[in-house]
Fold each of these.
Amino acid sequence: MCGIVGAIADRDVVPVLIDGLKRLEYRGYDSAGIAVVDGDDVRRVRRTGRVAEMEAAAAQEGFNATLGIGHTRWATHGGVTETNAHPHVSHGVALVHNGIIENHEQQREKLRAMGYEFESQTDTEVIAHLIHSFLAQGADLLSAVQQAVRELHGAYALAVVSRKEPGRMIAARMGCPLLVGLGDGENFVASDVSAIVQATRRVIFLEEGDTADVTRASVAVYDGNGEAVQRDVHISDVSLASLELGPYRHFMQKEIHEQPRAVGDTIEAVMDNGAFSASLFGEGAADVLRDVEGVQILACGTSYYAGLTARYWIESIAKIPCSVEIASEYRYRDAVANPKNLVVTISQSGETLDTMEALKYAKSLGHAKTLSICNVPESAIPRASRLVYYTRAGAEIGVASTKAFTTQLVALFTLTCTIAKLRGVLDDATEASYLDALRQLPGSVQHALNLEPQIVAWSERFAPKQHALFLGRGVHYPIALEGALKLKEISYIHAEAYPAGELKHGPLALVDEAMPVVVIAPNDALLEKVKSNIQEVRARGGEMFVFADADSQFGESEQVHVIRTPRHVGVLSPIVHAIPVQLLAYHAALARGTDVDKPRNLAKSVTVE
Ligand code: M6R
C-alpha cells in the first residue's frame, strides 16, 4: 500500500527519493509525489499513475535539493486525484503519511474554525494543518509534530519537513512501520528498508509512539512521552539482487523459480540443528510450546491457506486441536480464549493490519503464547509476538504470494514436528524420516518447476475462460484454494475451490464444457476418492486438468488432461503441489496480458482494514 521515503544529505536527494519510490512500487499505489525544501521554499510535484510520470514532471521542473520526502499513495480517503496525492502542504510544512486517521473529521472541523482551508478529501491534510497550527504558536518542528500526533487517533507513519527548518526532517510512527536509515553524513527515513537499501543498510526501526529528529549528521529518537531513547541499530540483510528482476520478465516468475533456494534457506537452521528443536523459535520457546493444548492460527489470504494446510499436519502429527481463522473475522467476534493454546499468526509482510489487530485481540483475551511466522525481519507482527520463525524467502515483490507460501509451509511443518516432539508423540524414526523429507524438498520443488512447459500448453486453453473450479481433498484442499486465489488475482478469471467431496452438494451444477476443472490429485490415501469425484465431473461433460503424481494411475482422454510430478513426496506433498498451480496462474495471466506483478485494485501489503 502506501510507501514513504525521505532523505537529508549534502547531495541532490531527488534521485534517492525517486529510486526509493520505484522500489516501493511493488506495494501497490495509484499516485506518487515528492516535496523538497529548496532555499526558503517548499516545492512539490504529484501525479496519478506511475512514479515514472511523476519523475518526468520533477525533471521538467528542475527539482534539485538536499532535503525531501516522497510518497506512493493507495487511495483510501478521497479518490485517485492529484490533489489527494501526497505530500500535503500547509504554509511551508510538507508531509507524507501512511495509515488512517480515524478522528480526521473532528480535526477538520476544528481546523476549519481556526481558518484553515482544505484542498483535498484526505485524512492526511489535517495533519499538515495541525502541525502548522502548533508552529504558529511558536513550537519548533519536532515539538509541533509531537503535539500534533497526540491529537490523532488511528495509525500513522509520517515524514515531515518545513521551509523554516531546512536542516531537519521529523519522522513519527504509530501502528505503521517506519525506519530511519543511517548514512555517512546523510540520513533517511522509509516505510520499508527496500526504499533506501541502495544508500544504506544501517537502520533503526522506530517503535510505537516514537518520533525521530533527523539531520544530516544526527538522529535523535524520542518515545511517546517525549523522552530521549536509544534504539538498536540493525544491519539489514535485504539484498539489492532480490529487489531486481534479473533475467526474468516478472517478479512473480522470478519468485516462483526461486523456491528451491527459498525453501533450502528456510530449512537451513533445522538441518544445521539436525533435529526439530524449540530453540528454532527463539529464547524460552520450549517453555512456551511444551504444554500447549491447542493451536489457533490467524492470517489472511495466502497466509491463511498456509494455516489451513498446517491444521492437517498439527492434528495428525502433533495430535492437538488446531483451528484456523481469517484474521479480519476473528478480530471482531466474541472468541472464547484458552490461554494454554498457542496463537500463531502467519504473514509474509508482517504488517497486515487485520492480522496485527487479530493478534492484539488474542492477547487482550489472555493469550500470552504467541508465535509469528513471518518473512520480514523486525516487522510489526513478529515484534508483537513472543516467539518467531522467520521464513527466508527473501524480498517478495510480486503481489501474488508464491515463495512466501511454500516457505511458510516449511515453517509450519517444522513447528508441528517441534510441538509433536515436545509432547512425546514423535518417535526418533519418524523424526529422521521427516528431516530427510525436508532435506529433499528443494530438489522435489525443482522437479515440479520442470513441469513448466507442459503447464504453458495448458494455460493457453485457460486464457479464454471466464470461470474455473479447483478441487482437492484433505491436506491438498488448501492447495486448491491457493490455486484458485492465484488464478483470480492475477488473471482475473473467476475461480473457486472446493473439497472434491463437496462437489455434488452444489457446485456440480456449474460444470459444463465451458468450465475447466483443475484437480490436485496426489498419490495419497484419498486418491481413489478423488478419482470418483472426477468421474462425477466427467459424466457432466466437464474438462479436467489433473495434477497427479507419476505413480498414480490416471487414464488420459479428450476430457481428462494429466500432468504428473515425478513422484509422491509423502507428508510434504502440498508444498510440491503448490508449484504447478502457481505456474498455471502465472502463464494464464501472461496469455491474457494482465499486469502480473501489480494486479488491478490490489496491494502487496494490506495495511488498512
Ligand atoms: O503479508 P501477508 O502474508 O499478511 O498478506 C496476506 C494477504 O494479503 C496475501 O497473502 C494476499 O492474499 C496475496 N496477494 C495472495 O497472493
Amino acid sequence: MDVVLFGPPGAGKGTQAKRLTDMLRIPQIATGDMMRSERASGSELGKRFDSFMSQGKLVPDAMVLELVEVRLRKDDAKNGAIFDGYPRTIPQAESLDGMLGKISRKIDRVVSMEVELDEQIQRITGRRTCLACGQVYHLIYNAPPANGRCGNCAGELVQRKDDTEEVVRKRHEEYLANTAPLLGYYGAKDLVVSVSGVGSLDDVTERIKKAIGV
Ligand code: AP5
C-alpha cells in the first residue's frame, strides 16, 4: 500500500506516519527528515538543503527527486510506503507516479489532514524532536517524560531551527502556493480523503485508518 499523508506544516503528518508504520509494517518516507539528517552530517548537500529550509522555502524539485529515488529502492519499501511531507509540488507528484509506475505500483490513497493556521503555529512552536530517533513531542499536547529526554531512547530533545512563528508562516505560504494545488491533482484521480487533524492522537489515527481502509 502506498499512502500520502498530506497537510500543512504541523498537521500531524509525521506523528501519524510513525504510528502507521508500526501498524502497517511499511516505512515512512519523510523528505524533511531525510534532509535534516543530511544537514546533520555536515555534507555540502546538507548545507544546500539548509539554505532553503531555514527560510521556510521549498527545496528545488530536482534535489528532492534524487533523495526519494534512492530511498524507494531500499528493501523495506518493497511493499509500499507512507509518504510524509512529499510530494509537495505537482512536478514531484508526477515524478512519484513515474517512479511507482516503473515498479507496478501507484498511490492508493491521499489522506488530507486539516488543521487551522493558529493551531499549526501552537503545535509547531511547542514541538520538540529527539535528535537520536526522531520521535516527535509537544510540550503540552504530547509531553515528553519528566526528565526531558526521549521516552523511546533517552535521546536529547531539541527544537527544530525552522520551528519559529516567523518561519512557520513562510512555510504556510509555500504550502498554499505550491502544495495545496496537489489536492486538485490527486482529486482528479479520486484519491483524496479529508480527515480532521484535530483531536487526540488516537482519534486522528482512527480517522486515518478508516480513510485508508485498514
Ligand atoms: P517537513 O519536515 O516535511 O515539515 P512540514 O511539512 O512543514 O511538516 P512538519 O514536520 O512541520 O509537521 P507535521 O505535519 O509532520 O506535524 P508533526 O507530526 O511533527 O519539511 C521541512 C522543510 O524541509 C520544508 O519547509 C522544506 O524546506 C523542506 N522540504 C521537506 N520536504 C520537501 C519536499 N518534498 N520538497 C521541497 N522541500 C521540502 O506535529 C507537529 C506538532 O504537533 C508536534 O509537536 C506534535 O507532537 C503535535 N501534534 C501532532 N498531532 C497532534 C494532535 N492531534 N493534537 C495536538 N498536537 C499534535
Amino acid sequence: MRSSAGTNTRNVVAVKQATALAHPNIALVKYWGKRDGALNLPAVGSISITLDTLQTTTRLQFDPTLKRDRFTLDGVDAADDSESARRVVQCLDRLRELAGVGTYADVQSENNFPTAAGLASSASGFAAIVVAADKALGLNLDRNKLSELARRGSGSAARSILGGFVELHHGKKPDGSDCVASALRDAADWPLAVTVGVISRKTKKISSTSGMEATRKTSPWYAGWVEGAESDLAIARDAIAARDFEKLATVSEHSCLKMHALALSARPGLLYWYGATVEGIHRVRELRAAGHAVFFTIDAGPQLKVVSEKSAVEVVNDALGEIAGVQDILHTGLGDGARVIA
Ligand code: DP6
C-alpha cells in the first residue's frame, strides 16, 4: 500500500515504543584509545563489571508525527547540535537502517546517578537506547549485534549489554563486527561489591572521547600501552575464572594507574583526579595491606570506585566517609545486562 503522496509504507510506521533499563559498568582492564574513530573501534580490549543499583531507564518512541529526533536526559532537552544528540541520532540511524524505517524518535533517558562525572553514563545510556530501539522496531537482534551497535555509540556501552564480568574484544576485522562484548562470568557467581566515592558532581571538562584521542596523538607512551593490554587482559581473565581477588586487584589497579599515567603524559597532560581521589587511593591501599579484600579503580573523572568482597563494604564506607572531599558514597553490587522493561 502506498500513501497518496507516494511514500513507501515502510517509512510510515505507527507509533512504536519500548522502555529499557541498563546499568553502567566499570572497567577493571581499561579501554583508552581507538584504532578507528569512524567505527569507534578500541585499540585495546577491556574487561568490566556491570553494576546493579545504578541505572539508566530509557523510554523510546518512534512517532511518525515527529519532524526530528528528540533526546532528553534527566528531563533536559539536548541541543540538536550537541555531541550527545549527534551520537544518539547516529545510533538511531543505524537501527532505522536495519529496520528499513525513516521515522524519528523521542528518547527520554533518566539516570539515577550523576551524569558525565566518570560514572560511565554513556555506557548505560547507549546500551539502553539500543535495546529499547531493537524492541520498538521489532528487530530481535542478537547480543553480538546489540553490543556492536552500542559500541558505535560509546565503546564502553558494548559491555553494558551484558551483566556480571564482561570482556569487550578488540577484534581483528576492519569492519569491527568482531569487536563485541562477551560474558566472562555471571554476577551471582562472584558477588563483589562496589562503593563509589563521589568527589565531584560537575560535568568533566574533557570527555573520555577527546581525552583518549589527545592521548593517542600526543603521548610518547601510547604504543607501550597498546602492547601491554593483551597480558593485562589474560591475567584478569584468569583471575575472574579462578575468583582470585588478589590477582584481580593487582591487575586492575595496574591498568587504572597505567591509563592515568598515560593520560598525564599527553600534551597537555590530562589530570582527572582531585586531592580526595589521591587520598582515597592511599586509604584503599592501607586497607588492602591490613588484609581487607579491596581495590580501587578510577575512570575519566575524579570519582573513586572501590571494588571489594561484600564483607569489606562497611570498612570501605567508613574509610571513604573520613575523606573530607568525598561528597557522597554510593553502594552497588554487580548486576545484569541491558533489558526491556516495558
Ligand atoms: C576511562 O566508552 O566513554 O571509562 O567510546 O569515545 O564513547 P567512547 O569512550 P568511552 O570511554 C571509556 C573510558 C574509560 C575506560 C573504560 O570504560 O574502559
